[in-house]
Amino acid sequence: MQVIQPSNSQPEDVDDISTIESSFQNFDSKFNNYNLSGNDMHTLSLLGAVGAGFKQFPFIENTTTEEEVKGDIESINIDTSGGGPVFLVYQQKTEKLLQLVKSVVTPGCANSIDRFKLTDMQKIFSTLDSLTRFEPYLSLEGVNITVDIVDTVIDCLEYGSRRTPLSASTVEGLTDIANVYHRVLDNVLNKMLPRKLQDLDVELSEDNIRAEIMLHVKFFLQETSLLKQNQGNITLDYQSINRQVDFIYRIRAHGRQFQLQQRETVCN
Prior knowledge:
Structural class: mainly alpha
Strand content: under 5%
Number of domains: 2
Helix content: 55-70%
Oligomer: single chain
């Protein structure tokens, strides 16, 4: 199924959330009509098509990097915008669509182990792939919902595999499911894993950061000495070092907050 997006239904910039809300005005009634039809796969096609139609804005992280701090800058920027209002609204809409997928799929095969055929399971995973493939629109709550759906479908797959003997067509169907399942898994892991890993078991402290910087300075002095580039006595600029310590501490504290949320998601 392809949902044709009206020309005025796409936001023009990262602040244009009113267009997104307008495009969803009739969504609930449309979903209810599909859902009441009793054709679950048709309903899932609607949800996947709506998510696939989201306009993908490039996500720009404007937080100053540690590498930039080492260039002895005078100020830093900690970006808490989440990319802009459109990203936050699209995350909310993605969560809603995933929750609706979950409502369609639940209770899985608990009441009927023959509820989903292999092609149905492939359709469910394909829908999840459509909703999770653009990482900036996938929240950690969206990850939790996705994992719940995946668990439900895997249970159905296990029920069916115990009853149905393997055949050439079954193996082919399982291969198709595995391909799209791994795409969903990649989407989820990309959101759950931090881009820059911090050891959360070690307390973040300015003293440790200062020790790192001083060690770097020591290596630099040794290197310049070996290369005979030392033009005389070098006076350490402790004011600059203290400023770098403060900046790096704030940058790491910012990244650490999201990494803690990622770890909580993994533990749950």
